[in-house]
Amino acid sequence: MSEPRPTDGPNAPRLTPIPPNPRAPVLLVDDDAELREMLREMLESAGYDVYCASNGREALDLLHKVDPPPGLILLDLMMPIMTGEEMLAALKQVHALAAIPVTIVSGHDGPPEGAAYLKKPVDFGALLGVVQKTCG
Fold first, then answer.
1. Suppose 56 and one of 24, 31, 67, 87 were both cysteines; which one would form an S-S bond, judging by CB atoms 3.0 to 4.6 Å apart?
2. pLDDT value, residue 5
3. How many of the other CB atoms lie within 10 Å of CB of 25?
4. Mean pLDDT in residue range 58-86
5. Could you give the CA distance from residue 136 to residue 25 in angstroms, rounded to a whole number?
6. Cα(120)–Cα(104) distance, rounded to whole angstroms?
7. CB neighbours of 78 closer than 8 A, spacing ≥ 6?
8. CA–CA separation, 60 and 56 (whole Å)
9. Which residues pair with 28 in a beta bridge?
10. Average pLDDT of 88-99?
């Protein structure tokens, strides 16, 4: 008869499986399909899962469906259907979404009050630094 191993029995420690990508995903919201695709590919090559939306309305709909939720939203300001500023206002109305950090990525001179901001054309190193700091 063999002796019990430390991992056997009711008092054995439970091991939690590590997901394939322990980093939080990123939600990229921009109406420029070419830029969105380029940034998505760059972030995925850096090891991040990326959700994409072409406007604020599409992004809000996506946020109610995705699991896990994003750890960061990269948000353009000037988009059709729902602008970035309108999306920011909508995020604040939903408690679970209001806690998701947002970084504005825009060609405009300044972000809305209190928002993190990267100016287009975006430096990928700076963008990746923001993503790494926020999402792991």
1. 87
2. 47
3. 19
4. 94
5. 10
6. 10
7. 31, 84, 106, 107, 108
8. 6
9. 52, 74
10. 91
Q: What value does the CA radius of gyration of the chain take, rounded to a whole number of Å?
A: 19
133: its two tokens? 């700091």
Enclosing H/E stretch for 74: strand 72-75
Does residue 28 contact residue 43 with C-beta atoms inside 8 Å?
Answer: yes
Q: Which residues pair with 74 in a beta bridge?
A: 28, 103
- The set of residues, in sequence order, having a beta carbon less than 8 Å from that of 5 and lying 6+ positions away, is none
Question: Comparing 74 with 7, which gets the higher pLDDT?
Answer: 74
Is the pLDDT score of 118 beyond 80?
yes
pLDDT at 33 over 80: yes
Tell the residue number behind the tokens 């947002």, with chain if given. 102
Amino acid identity at 13: P
